[in-house]
Amino acid sequence: QVQLVESGGGFVQPGGSLRLSCAASGSIFSMDSMGWYRQSPGKEREMVALIVSNGFASYLDSVKGRFNISRDKTKNTVYLQMNMLKPEDTAVYYCRLNQRGFLSWGQGTQVTVSS
Q1: Which residues of 65-85 are buried (b: 16+ CB within 10 A; e: fewer)?
Q2: How far apart are alpha carbons 61 and 110 in whole angstroms?
Q3: Counting Cβ atoms within 10 Å, is residue 8 exposed (0-12), middle (13-18) or buried (19+)?
Q4: How many whole angstroms separate alpha carbon 30 and alpha carbon 114?
Q5: Cα(104)–Cα(62) distance, rounded to whole angstroms?
């Protein structure tokens, strides 16, 4: 069984920054990819940023240039640095681990951007 624990969410004013962390533990046998997804009320969950095993990262168009995903393999942890936050970034952010097609999700962390 895999546990993903997210942290770092909160309330921030537009233009501010937050850093999310997701630590994976348990039955970790392969980290094909780790990613951050978000979901706001009435909307579908969407991929925000993804980093694959070779380090290649991809981003949702609306966050390119503002968000950065990184990882620490020694700690099985992935980070999402979010800068220049906008009200439309408000959502619950979820971490996801893909191990050979087996998906594990974190419990989510709320990010609220408002003046």
Answers
A1: eebbbebeeeebbbbbebeeb
A2: 21
A3: middle
A4: 38
A5: 25
Task: Select from 50, 34, 49 the least CA-distant residue to 99.
Answer: 34
Under 8 Å between Cβ of 87 and 114:
yes
Instruction: Return per-residue pLDDT of the chain as tens, 115 residues.
Output: 899 999 999 999 999 999 999 999 998 888 889 999 999 999 999 999 999 999 999 999 999 999 999 999 899 999 999 999 999 999 999 999 999 999 999 999 999 999 9
Q: Six-digit token pair at 1?
A: 């069984």
